Amino acid sequence: xxxxxxxxxxxxxxxxxxxxxxxxxxxxxxxxxxxxxxxxxxxxxxxxxxxxxxxxxxxxxxxxxxxxxxxxxxxxxxxxxxxxxxxxxxxxxxxxxxxxxxxxxxxxxxxxxxxxxxxxxxxxxxxxxxxxxxxxxxxxxxxxxxxxxxxxxxxxxxxxxxxxxxxxxxxxxxxxxxxxxxxxxxxxxxxxxxxxxxxxxxxxxxxxxxxxxxxxxxxxxxxxxxxxxxxxxxxxxxxxxxxxxxxxxxxxxxxxxxxxxxxxxxxxxxxxxxxxxxxxxxxxxxxxxxxxxxxxxxxxxxxxxx
Length: 306
Fold this sequence. Notes:
By secondary structure, the chain is α+β, with helices and mostly antiparallel strands. Helix 2 packs across helix 3 (66-76) and helix 7 crosses helix 8. Strand 13 (277-279) and strand 14 form a beta hairpin. It has a 15-stranded mixed beta sheet that branches. The chain has helices at residues 16-29, 45-54, 66-76, 81-85, 99-103, 111-119, 153-168, 171-182, 238-249, and strands spanning 6-10, 34-38, 59-64, 88-93, 122-134, 140-145, 148-152, 189-195, 198-210, 228-234, 259-264, 266-271, 277-279, 282-285, 288-304.
C-alpha cells in the first residue's frame, strides 16, 4: 500500500448514487489516488475503518456525519499509539448532523472546497472526550467522542427520534415528531455530579459535555485545549424552554438564565439513574451506577482547512 493512497469510506444518507458519483468525480479531477468503500449500515462503519487501517491506508476520509466520525475515532483508538499516529483522519460532510465538520468550516454544500483543503494535508492533533461507564451487565465500557456527550433531555430526544424513525422511515419526519413528543415528555432528572470543586445535587433538564461545539450547547469549546466545556441546564418553564431553543439556534445558548457553564478536565456523575446518555448522536442508554467523562489531549490526527 502506497502511503499517499486515500481510503475513502462513503456513508450513504440520501440520493446515494448522485452524491457518491459527485465525490468520485471531484477526487478524480483533483488527481487523488484512492480506494472507495461504502458502508451498508451504521454497524458496518467500524468494521470498514478497521479494514482500511489494517490494509495500510495512512489517510482515511469519512464521507458522512458526526455519528460516522464517532465510529471512526473509536475504531482508531483501539489501535496502538504508533499505528494511530501514522494515520490522518479527514471528513467530507454528508450526514444529518455535521457539527464537527462545520466547526472547521467544511460544508456539505461545497465538497470541492473540502477536497481542495484535504489534498493539502494540513494535520492537527485533536482532543477526544471519553465516557467511562458500566453497562447493564456490569462490564466496564468506554466511548470516545469528538463533539459532545449529552445527559438527560437531549439524549431522550435522540431516543424518541430513533423510535419514530423505525416507525416512519423518514429522518426529517422522525425528527419533527420527536420534537413534538418532547412537549409531553419528562423535562427534568434528579442528578448529582461533581465538576471541578462544585457538587451539583438538583433537578437538571439536560447536561452537555463538549470537546467540540456540542450542537450549540458548548459554543466556546475547542478540540485542542485539553479541556471540556460543560453546560448544565436546570429546570425551566415551558416558555423558557422555547426561549432557550431560540438562543440555541441563534448561537447565544449560554445567555439563558437556566444555563450554568463550566470548563473542566473531568465530570463525575454520581447519580442520574433515570437519565439517558448519548454520545455524538449515538444513544448509549442508561449506565449502571456512577460514571465519568474525561478528556484525552491530542490523540487523533485530523485533516483541517488551509
